[in-house]
Design a protein that fits this description.
- The structure is a single chain.
- By secondary structure, the protein is of the alpha/beta class.
- Helices cover 31% and strands 16% of the residues.
Length: 474
């Protein structure tokens, strides 16, 4: 069916207003400022309303994208939100942090000649419009169906699973290990990319549906999975992947070496970036972030905002192979982050201090790297980095942040003997999230290892449908 509106034939997206790079790299306010209503309408009119809807196939939670965009084009912003809300419990989050370029926008036919429709920016606009204009009592709580489900973890997988089950009338309780709900959305992603007030708004929306959230509940310590099974008809484990990896190189135990998880948690969850914060975080001059993913970009841009003079991304492959989103890399470059690609650390040097009473004793003073070149593709399909003999060099450094990926915390596995896991601790689950234990489902980073917010949400959504089917058939 052809669109009711006149198609906007512009080949490029409506630009996203943003803070100036030399201003934003000194504050923690959101970088992207969002579309105005006029911008959103004009961008929405770029949608061709394709009959086959390839963008929907590219979305892990299958949002009805052309339908919501058509409403935006007509100025019906709340109607657009209600369409998104049928599929996604976290639209304000997804509109900000999802890798749309490789998912929905990657399938958009407008991208064949020119740029795809800015689906993510439109989703963000619609969610922000709803959050600004909707009243708290507008949420209609579903009729209870008499069944109880527990959700372990309040990250994107857990929140999505809980939201979908709550909409079906389930009595859902989320158990969160930290003191604040949101998982990686609050401890991992910086304020300048995802304001925490937005995450809280999404959590409050789930509470309005009847979802209960129990914080400071470390499952495997306070309660076990077996003890939860005695209280609930089904359990979803969305405990994420919070165990950092290190390189095991000399000097990695020096003071001033962080995992990206610890560094970002101190800044994001514990608010170390605020002037009056009591959370300690190192004030550094020269900092190296080892890794090239989105988390590495977050750590680098955070360090810059905390006052570091020189911030380096040290990555063993080239710029073309960086796994981070293109937009995040561009933002980092604009903000003055220095990219040292085709380099790999071999050791971390200590300050030349022998007196244990000296504050500099045992602290980082340098980083020695070796240059790399790309060889033949490895199992991942990317060209394998190979060391260039004799090419070592040393940089002055007072902080090194390792951003090499994460694995699931082993606590749940250690206290749940019947739960089958993989080599790195990821939980074994089928495509619906069913684990080796009847009635226990899992999804998100706890199953896949560290991945994207939207893939975790997709897993939570599938598991919610499977849990509903399991309980109704039982």
């Amino acid at each position: 069916m052809p669109p009711k509106y006149k198609i906007n034939l512009d080949l490029v997206k409506c630009p996203m207003p943003a803070q100036d790079p030399n201003v934003r790299n000194k504050n923690f306010q959101e970088v992207a400022l969002g579309y105005t209503a006029e911008m959103a309408v004009e961008e929405a009119k770029r949608c061709l309303q394709c009959p086959k809807k390839p963008c929907v196939d590219g979305c892990p939670v299958n949002i009805h994208i052309p339908e919501f965009i058509a409403e935006v084009a007509e100025g019906n912003f709340e109607a657009a939100y209600q369409i998104i809300n049928q599929s996604s419990s976290l639209p304000a989050v997804c509109g900000r942090v999802c890798p749309q370029e490789s998912q929905c926008e990657g399938k958009c036919n407008r991208g064949i000649k020119g740029e795809p429709v800015a689906i993510g920016r439109l989703e963000r606009f619609v969610a922000d419009y709803h959050n600004e204009h909707a009243s708290a009592d507008s949420v209609k709580r579903p009729t209870p169906n008499g069944h109880k489900v527990a959700v372990v973890g309040s990250g994107p997988a857990g929140l999505t699973c809980a939201g979908d089950l709550a909409k079906l009338g389930y009595d859902v309780t989320i158990y969160e290990a930290l003191h604040l709900a949101g998982g990686v959305l609050v401890y991992g992603i910086p304020e300048f990319r995802l304001p925490k007030a937005i995450v809280q708004k999404e959590v409050d929306g789930l509470k309005a549906l009847g979802v209960k959230v129990e914080t400071n509940m470390v499952i495997g310590r306070v309660l076990t999975i077996e003890e939860l099974k005695e209280q609930y008809e089904a359990i979803f484990i969305g405990s994420g992947a919070g165990l950092p990896r290190f390189m095991n190189i000399p000097g990695e135990n020096l003071r001033g070496v962080y995992s990206a998880n610890e560094f970002l948690t101190r800044s994001n969850l514990m608010k170390a970036y605020l002037p009056d914060s009591t959370t300690p975080i190192q004030q550094v001059k020269n900092v190296a972030i080892v890794g090239g993913g989105n988390v590495a970009m977050d750590a680098a841009r955070t360090a810059k905002r905390l006052g570091a003079e020189n911030v380096y991304i040290v990555y063993r492959r080239g710029m073309e192979e960086l796994p981070a989103r293109k937009e995040e890399v561009e933002h980092a470059e604009e903000e003055g982050i220095i990219f040292k690609t085709l380099c790999n650390p071999v050791s971390i040097g200590a300050a030349d201090v022998t007196d244990p009473r000296d504050p500099a004793y045992g602290t980082v003073a340098s980083l020695t790297c070796i240059r790399m070149e790309l060889g033949e593709p490895d199992a991942s399909g990317r060209r394998r980095p190979v060391e260039v003999p004799g090419s070592e060099f040393t940089m002055d450094m007072d902080c090194v942040i390792m951003s090499l990926g994460t694995s699931p915390n082993p606590l749940i596995k250690q206290t749940t003997p019947d739960l089958v896991t993989k080599r790195r601790g990821e939980i074994e689950a089928d495509e619906d999230g069913l684990t080796s234990i009847e009635g226990v489902y899992a999804g998100g980073d706890a199953v896949t290892g560290a991945a994207t917010v939207i893939l975790a949400m997709g897993a939570g959504k599938k598991a919610a449908a499977a849990i509903d089917k399991y309980i109704q058939e039982k």
